[in-house]
Amino acid sequence: MKIRTRFAPSPTGFMHVGNLRTALYEYLTAKHEGGDFILRIEDTDQERYVEGATDVIYNTLKTAGLTHDEGPDIGGDFGPYVQSERLSMYKPYAEELVKAGKAYYCFCSKERLEDLKKNAKEGEVVGYDRHCRDLPQSEIDEKLQAGVPYVIRQKSPLTGESTYHDCVYGDITIPNEELDDQVLIKADGFPTYNFANVIDDHTMGITHVVRGSEYLSSTPKYNALYDAFGWEIPTYIHLPLIMGKSVDEEGKEVVSKLSKRHGSTGFFDLVNEGFLPEAIMNYIALLGWCPAGEYENREIFTMDELVKAFDIHGISKSPSVFDYDKLEWVNAEYIKNMDSDTFLKNAKPYFDKLGIGEGSYALLEEILKPRITRFTQIEEKLAFLNNYEAFDLSLFEHKKSKSTLETSKAILGDIIPVLAEGAWDRDAITNALTEYAAAHEYKNALVMWPVRIAAAGVAVTPGGCAEVLLLLGKDESMRRLNEAFKRLG
User: Which residues, including other chains, have CB under 8 Å from residue 88's CB and lie 6 or more apart?
Assistant: First the structure.
């Protein structure tokens, strides 16, 4: 049997990392076994529909590297792949259940249902009281003929237990008394999410359903529908929650369901903050899944490697915590391992903004790769190239290198003419500085510190003294060194 999974998002806005992880696990579940990954758009909830959100779904999957085999944009043998284009098929299935005694017409008004809630005792969970479940057929016919509005409800079992198997959580048993008679077809003729979900999954040949653990308790209602139709129940893979960390007013760490208060939770929000799509997907793959065998203890994967390594038995039951620091580390590893062309492709927009020419590209790649965790940091790290203001002279004081204002003034006075007369490449600059240090029995750091501070005007730079001078160029470097020397009096 060929595995078929589906990602069925609603076009309601941005793509949350929880939804994206579901899509990723669905993709990996199918592709690991040579199966198909299907995209279906569930757009029947018109109140939550957001204009342009369908494009967000397409763009997210494309950027994330999740290529679907069937979907609204590319078609397939099981279309249409947009739920609103399938509306005509749902009600006949519901009517079939009514005829079989597995569902019923409910004529209760909104007012009656609201009264049920109002009259409930405090703390009592109120479901539908099954008022219309066993109406006489004559009364049903009369109401239908009179055009009384109705919904179609599922006849859930009233006694006993329902048990099913989940690949992650094992056997799950739910008392049937906890199952309500859920609505299948609403008064406007539209299907409910749960009902359309079952019909679509079956008619599209979906074999494995991957979704969040919040659906564990409601799955028996889905299964009751499969049983009522005599259809094969799919394999279930329920995923643990993704949590976030925050600090409360007392300074204590609090772990709760991931939300915007923890940081960015949307895929493109993270991309806009400088995280690489490949790194995001790599990190998300490890949120609830642990590699095994030859991939054990490994943390960096390409998408192709994830397909080979993924095994649903490695999915954890326990919630995972979205750690932004860990994502930062993964992103940094991707940057360190980039080839030159890929690095330049990502870095060039920032180089262009700073007016940096091609001659500096190789040097910048060398010094930035091990020092940045996101490409968005380039502008800040290289800001000194275009900004040189009257910095605090205390920057010349550095305990570790034993640099003081006095030593800095003396060293700059000596080294400026040496640098002015010398060649301007890394070896020449470095040799000039180290030879001067040796001649005066200084440690290299004592010489390098004031020269770098005088040239950059900031305490922290990517690269050392020679690299800073090379990036600035000889003319600008000498101008800055002379200006700083004058300020030292």
Answer: none
The DSSP symbol for 163 reads E
pLDDT given at position 53:
86
Compute CA 438 distance to the chain's CA centroid, rounded to the nearest angstrom: 53
Evaluate whether 104 touches 98 at the Cβ level (below 8 Å). Answer: yes
- C-beta of residue 443 within 8 angstroms of C-beta of residue 351: no
What angle, rounded to 10 degrees, do the helices at 465-472 and 444-456 form?
30
For 87-96, 188-197, 348-357, 407-416, which range has the lowest pLDDT when averaged over its residues?
188-197
Amino acid at 10: S
Quick check: 259 pLDDT over 90?
no
Q: What is the pTM of this model?
A: 0.90
Residue 195 to residue 57: CA distance in whole angstroms: 23
Among 380, 399, 390, 386, which residue's Cα sits nearest to residue 454? 390
Q: What is the DSSP letter of 394?
A: G
Cα distance between residue 73 and residue 81, in whole Å: 9
Give the pair of three-digit tokens for residue 124: 């009592």
Provide the token pair at 361.
């590209």
Residues in the chain: 489
Say if residue 244's pLDDT is above 90: no
The answer to whether 260 is a known catalytic residue is yes
3-state secondary structure of 266: strand
Rounded Cα–Cα distance for residues 124 and 3 (Å): 42
Query: Over the Cα atoms of the chain, what is R_g?
Result: 32
Q: How far is CA 84 from CA 45, 59, 92, 172, 182, in A?
A: 9, 21, 16, 33, 21
pLDDT tens by residue, 55-91: 999 999 999 999 999 999 999 999 999 999 999 999 9
Catalytic entry in 2, 117, 257, 260: 260
Q: Is 261 exposed, middle or buried (0-12, 13-18, 19+ CB in 10 A)?
A: exposed
Using DSSP, state whether 461 is helix, strand or coil.
Answer: coil
pLDDT tens by residue, 378-426: 999 999 999 999 999 999 999 999 999 999 999 999 999 999 999 999 9
Which DSSP helix (H) or strand (E) runs through 68?
none
Q: Mind giving me the DSSP string for 267-317?
A: HHHHHHTT--HHHHHHHHHTSSB---GGGTT-----HHHHHHH--GGGB-S
- CB proximity list for 145: less than 8 A, separation 6 or greater: none
- How would DSSP label each residue in 98-135? HHTTSEEEE---HHHHHHHHHTSPTT-------TTTT-
